[in-house]
Fold this sequence. Notes:
By secondary structure, the chain is mainly beta. It contains 2 helices and 12 strands. Strand 1 (4-14) and strand 2 form a beta hairpin. The relative contact order is 0.16. The model has no long low-confidence stretch (mean pLDDT 89).
Amino acid sequence: MEDLLKVGVITTTHGVRGEVKVYPTTDDAERFLDLDYVLLDTGRELRRLDIQNVKFFKNLVILKFDGIDNINDIEKYKGHDLWIPREEGQSLEDNEYYIADLLGMRVLLEDGSEFGTLKDVMETGANDVYIIDSREHGEVLLPAIRDCILNVDLENETMTVHLMKGLI
Length: 168
């Protein structure tokens, strides 16, 4: 799904009129205000859902979709992902990347030696943390800060890192 970006996950229903609570997987939850539609991964296909209304509650987004007016029409999709086409994604600043583009990257040390593979990204309040699967060290957590992440090369799918003292 490289041509799609995940923007959220349906957590539960909201009320009985077909609204859902969505956990946003985008940096800016207000991003949903600019979207006309999302693509629901039903497990078998991607279903286009036109957004009728957007509200916010704590850290969640409450969405109402056109044509879904009953809790029974949407309840079966709890836990399912919402996607948008990549061209609908927000433009990125320098040194900003879509998580989807980072996953699976080869991680190299400063000397060019192979360290591991970027397995996942943990989003924390201060900065993201990259979860690296290293053959030699197992799972290693690296903070996504300039002192640790020296270079990200999307074209060659590699990331060069500096292992600060105490990280292993």
